[in-house]
Write the structure tokens for this entry.
Amino acid sequence: MRFKRWFLAVVTACFAASQPLATAPASAGPSAIGLWSVETGGSTGPCQIELQGHAFAGRFAARSIRCLGPLAFLTTWSPEHNGFALFGIDGRAIARFAPARGIMTGRLADGSLVILRRAGGGKAASPPVPRGNGGNPCYLREDTGRCVAPEDTVAPRGPHPVKVRITGLMNIRREQSLKSQYVGQVNPGQCIIVNTCADTRWGVRCEIPMDGGRTRGFILKYYQKNGRDYVGFVNRC
């Protein structure tokens, strides 16, 4: 019996010694604390997340509200550069977010695009943008000069491929990089197929089939012109 108690004490001590000390960051970025609405992201469903300002497990506490998928396991968050990261109960990153024209954009491990918007109150996570469509950021379509509907302010949710309608003259590049080879253009009013979209360092880039599907090219979902924000296409045709 004494040996058993001694063995358990040794195992417990070793386990405790292997755990990192839980020390929270010095402060939480006030621009991120609060309630956020999850408006896209595949399997997450319509839900909200709350980023809190008190320490928990070496980071800051967070919780999800009615979320499915990976966000259902949200427990902590941490500021990162000009954005923040979300972590699950296993301590692994669920997604990382950065500001983009008044919203926060990120990607889950399965590749799903996720967009967060303020659920109300608190400071914006990035500079404010013109608003329209019931409080959504106003992204213009160049062919009409009007704000697009809220469902067109995000990349197509799928299932892919999807057919979209081009709203502004755009170049097609061979790869995601804006410096890659120019291979053509798409024109306003043209309906094309989008295979998939991805967050990249050059913004959201969408892959389209070319030459009957034998090759591919990439177009922008968003672009700026004369200081205003535009979408390159609406998510239907």
